[in-house]
Design brief:
- The protein is an alpha/beta fold.
- It folds into three domains: about 110 residues, Methylthiotransferase, N-terminal domain (Rossmann fold), CATH 3.40.50.12160; about 230 residues, tm_1862 like domain (pyruvate-formate lyase- activating enzyme, Alpha-Beta Horseshoe), CATH 3.80.30.20; about 60 residues, Beta Barrel (OB fold (Dihydrolipoamide Acetyltransferase, E2P)), CATH 2.40.50.140.
- The longest helix has 24 residues.
- Strand 17 and strand 18 form a beta hairpin.
- It has twelve helices and 18 strands.
- Helix 1 crosses helix 4, helix 10 packs parallel to helix 11 and helix 11 runs parallel beside helix 12.
- Helix content is about 35%, strand content about 20%.
Length: about 425
């Protein structure tokens, strides 16, 4: 039986799908890359905001056509959207054969539904196994859930309280991936800087990161760092290991203190600028990514202007700008002073354009410099035989390095940046 997993949403969902794939393979099922060739299709959904839910439902309905007229015999749905809206989905999507909760936690249940005679990976004991991903990188979850009380966020209700994975399990998973040839390990969680605080004898994420970097000569990238968790010790750890990417993914969300308070978050623009300065003082070429929400209830023109000024001063390499989404069941949904959607959309467009202009300028400033690029097969074979990413570029979201000339097909190559196209860097072998 061939099973295809189609994933919607963030890298944490991708990590869940990768683990589910490994459980299915261990049960004797074959993993298909193409849903058209699969006997069973599993959709791992996102339900964080309404737009993600709509995207997931549209995808399910598209794949249901294969269920009706193709080789697909079963269509299963799991993930955050099911965790949040199961009863409604069961009633409204008769095209789906079965629904499950979060992909990783329900992996054994899904295996039992497809291969009843197989023993689950957990029942066999041993470490959490992983198939080698088709890319040269892999996401590894170091935690799940969240204890924060951000008023706009549905994650705690979907994924529960914050839970750190034990370091032994993380290290075993990384060991297995490196043995399979993975060249970049990306550590993810809802709040990676908080890793270990709920474990006995907590050592902190910086020590876990340092130990992994000493243990394996591959790149490590840490994502989803809440601002107050970016300590001097963590910055020093990143700075002191060449194979830890000089990359800080810090979701500031806003810069106006009043809006941050209504969001249930700490800090303000001045504190965030000071943090950015500390990072750049220690690591001058560090890349910084953030996410920002515009149009939160009661956001005034002055608040928005303060956020825009923060973006101008921070000169971030990458900023994901999101229009506030009113989500049922969150504290923010019941706040007063919700803003006209047209105003929110215009603010999001303006701030997104500003962030893109600054990001392009930051990329252009790297012209003439030499950087290491981890190579991957190129989709633009004629003009650029190979592409890859530098330590300044996370997968899928930050652009790529397009490499001209004869190059190896994989591994790490030293290149010189000769021009840029937006966030992408055009390079040649150094």
């Amino acid at each position: 039986m061939q099973v295809a997993i189609v994933t919607v949403g963030c890298p944490k969902n991708v990590a869940d799908s990768d683990v589910l794939s490994s459980h299915l393979a261990a049960a004797g099922l074959r993993i298909a890359e193409d849903p058209n060739a699969a006997d069973v299709i599993i959709v791992n959904t996102c339900g964080f905001i309404a737009a993600a839910t709509e995207e997931s439902i549209d995808l399910i309905l598209d794949l249901a056509e294969l269920r009706r007229g193709g080789s697909c015999k079963k269509l299963l749905v799991c993930g955050c959207m099911v965790q949040r809206h199961r009863d409604q989905l069961v009633a409204e999507l008769p095209e789906v054969d079965d629904f499950f909760g979060l992909a990783e936690s329900c992996a054994d249940e899904i295996v039992a539904a497809l291969a009843p005679a197989a023993r689950s990976a957990r029942s066999r004991g041993g470490v959490r196994s992983r198939l080698r991903p088709p890319t040269g990188y892999a996401y590894v979850k170091i935690s799940d859930g969240c204890d924060r009380a951000c008023t706009f966020c549905t994650i705690p209700s979907i994924r529960g309280a914050y839970r750190s994975r034990p370091s032994q399990k993380i290290e075993a998973e990384v060991d297995a991936l490196v043995r399979q040839g993975v060249g970049e390990v990306i550590l993810v969680g809802q709040d990676t800087a908080a890793w270990g605080r709920d474990l006995p004898g907590s050592e902190g994420v910086q020590r876990l990161l340092a130990r992994l970097a000493r243990r394996h000569d591959v790149w490590f990238r840490l994502m989803y760092l809440q601002p107050e968790g970016v300590t001097e010790e963590l910055i020093r750890t990143v700075a002191s290991h060449d194979n830890v990417c000089n990359y800080f993914d810090i979701p500031f969300q806003h810069a106006a203190r009043g809006i941050l308070c209504r969001m249930g978050r700490l800090g303000d623009g001045a504190a965030f600028l000071a943090l950015i300065e500390r990072v750049r003082d220690a690591i001058p070429d560090a890349a910084l990514r953030t996410s920002l929400i515009v149009g939160f209830p009661a956001e005034t023109e002055r608040d928005f202007g303060e956020l825009a000024e923060f973006v101008r001063l921070a000169r971030l390499d990458y900023a994901g700008v999101f229009a506030y989404s009113r989500e049922e069941g969150t504290p923010a949904a019941s706040l007063g002073d919700h803003i006209d959607p047209d105003v929110v959309g215009e603010r999001a467009r303006m701030l997104g354009d500003l962030a893109d202009d600054i990001g392009a300028e930051r990329a252009a400033a790297r012209v003439g410099r030499e950087v290491d690029v981890r190579l991957e097969p190129s989709v633009l074979q004629q003009e650029y035989p190979c592409e890859g990413r530098s330590q300044f570029q996370a997968p899928e979201v930050d652009g790529v390095c397009l490499v001209r000339g004869e190059t190896p097909s994989d591994g790490v190559l030293r290149v010189r940046v000769i021009e840029t196209d937006g966030y992408d860097m055009i390079c040649e072998p150094a």
